[in-house]
Amino acid sequence: MDENKDIKDIKDIKDIKDITSNGMPEENIIGYAENEFIADEITEEKKFDLKSARRTFGLLSLGLFATVFVILATSFSIGAFIPSELLGKAWFPYLLNFVVMYAIAFPIGYLFIRGLPKDEPEIPTESKMNKKTFIRMFISALCLMYVGNIVGTAVTGFFTFFKYFLREMPSQSFSEMFNKDAFFVQIIFVAVVAPIVEELIFRKVIIDRTKRFGYMPAILFSGVTFGLFHGNFSQMFYATLLGFLLAYIYCRTGKVIHTILMHSVINIYGGVVPTVIFALMDTERLDAIQMIEDSDKYIEAITDFAIDNILPIILYSLHMIAFLTIAVIGLIFLIKDRKRYKAGILKADPPMPKGKTFKTLFVSAGFILFVCAVLVEVYLSL
């Protein structure tokens, strides 16, 4: 094909004549036109698609709202259809929770987002994590968990105290929190089922659809929604912080198996180990002691209990000391690694416009509905 004919297709012939009349040699016209065409093409490609980003985060939020709504609706109505003898079984709530949340609610929520593109961004990933990095990040995760747990406990205590004046509410007993009859079911659910399903949803499904807008928006949205989804102040804050770290790991490696293993190990250390220790205690006796109003009798009863349960008390004390020690080491790691984390949070090309991140991620009808549904869960959990 004639080269001059290509130029006429790319640029208006009048523009070429103007260039020539302004002193540009004719042999440079072709190069000029091609460069102008390429520049226009690049300018068009580098425009950030803010509309697509808002639609993506909005639909993801709507899907999460649908998930929580189904969980709440099922929780209020399921009791009328289940025999009372089943409801009394210690293992049944875990099985029911699994069916409602993972077999019904999540699939319904997924219907809202299945059409969203999973375009792989041209952002490099490390694609692997060695044992040393895994252990270092696990220690850092326990620090985030410790700090978030302190905040969550304080907030829960404040609102529980406030709610007490609105209506009388029984607190959850130790025997309910550490139910020996559901011991093995609880371990399987906490250490295996929850990490697998939650990481597939909050890391793979969400980040695969948001990573193209940059690591930071994907990490923020994944972490915040993961924390909110837990539906109670006790877990919400540390889950959010852990969600940020797990989202970072998935962004950098692109392998959900790493976050599943990390999530599982965290749940084992923070949830399964205390459950195993409390299973060695007489929790029903401890519940009875909490009901004693006379201070002298209470001190005598709790002292006798401590003597009779000295081994699990020592084990739990050692666990908490180890937790605090690891948390301090994790804080040191987080401070030392802050530059590496910052460098690892890559931006999209072009990046999301400054000042638009919060509105794009969290200001949508879907996210507002999601937060409202979570607040209902939080109120019911107090």
Explain this structure to me?
The protein has 382 residues and is an all-alpha fold. The chain folds into two domains: 1-45, no CATH class; 46-381, no CATH class. The protein contains 18 helices and no strands. Residues 5-21 and 36-44 have low confidence and may be disordered.
Main features:
382 residues, mainly alpha, 0% strand, globular
The CA-CA distance between the termini, in Å, is 76 Å
Alpha plus pi helix count: 18
Q: Would you tell me the overall average pLDDT?
A: 83
* Uncertain regions spanning at least 5 consecutive residues: 5-21, 36-44
Shape: globular
How many discrete structural domains? 2
Number of E-type strands: 0
Taking the sheet with the most strands, its summary is: none
- Please tell me how large the radius of gyration is: 28 Å
Percent in strands: under 5%
What layout of secondary structure does this protein have?
Layout: H1 3-10, H2 13-21, H3 29-45, H4 50-77, H5 84-87, H6 92-110, H7 131-164, H8 174-177, H9 183-210, H10 215-229, H11 233-253, H12 256-279, H13 283-290, H14 295-308, H15 310-336, H16 338-344, H17 357-362, H18 365-381
Helix pairs in contact: 1-3, 4-6, 4-18, 6-9, 7-11, 7-12, 7-15, 9-10, 9-11, 9-12, 10-11, 11-12, 12-15, 13-14
A few lines on this structure:
The protein is mainly alpha-helical and 382 residues long. The chain has helices at 3-10, 13-21, 29-45, 50-77, 84-87, 92-110, 131-164, 174-177, 183-210, 215-229, 233-253, 256-279, 283-290, 295-308, 310-336, 338-344, 357-362, 365-381.
